[in-house]
Design goal:
Layout (H helix, E strand, L loop, with lengths): L7 E3 L3 E6 L2 E6 L4 E6 H9 L6 H8 L5 H16 L3 E3 L2
Antiparallel strand pairs: 1-5, 2-3, 3-4
Helix pairs in contact: 1-2
């Protein structure tokens, strides 16, 4: 489970391209694709190996509600489990 304080980074096996509506991620090793909308693209951008999950979620949303925060955490967890993100040591 991705913890709020964890610093995550993009996997080096992931390529991405901007789209008109967000960003398309391609995991080269598994050949999986994920398309993120504009709001979730911001979360992806902040998970750069320098920001914690909590920082990324706070910066990516102007809505501080628990539901929005939980949805962001679930996205981060699914990207971590699928190998798109890695835990930064």
């Amino acid at each position: 489970m991705a913890e709020d304080f964890q610093v995550l980074a993009k996997s080096p096996e992931v390529l991405w391209a901007l789209t008109p509506d967000g960003i398309l991620l391609h995991h080269m090793a598994t050949d999986k694709y994920v398309e993120l909308g504009a709001a979730n693209r911001c979360i992806w951008e902040y998970l750069d190996g320098f920001h914690s999950v909590e920082e990324a979620l706070a910066r990516a949303s102007t809505d501080p509600s628990a539901a929005v925060y939980q949805a962001g955490k679930e996205l981060v967890q699914s990207l971590l489990e699928a190998g798109f993100l890695i835990v930064e040591a």
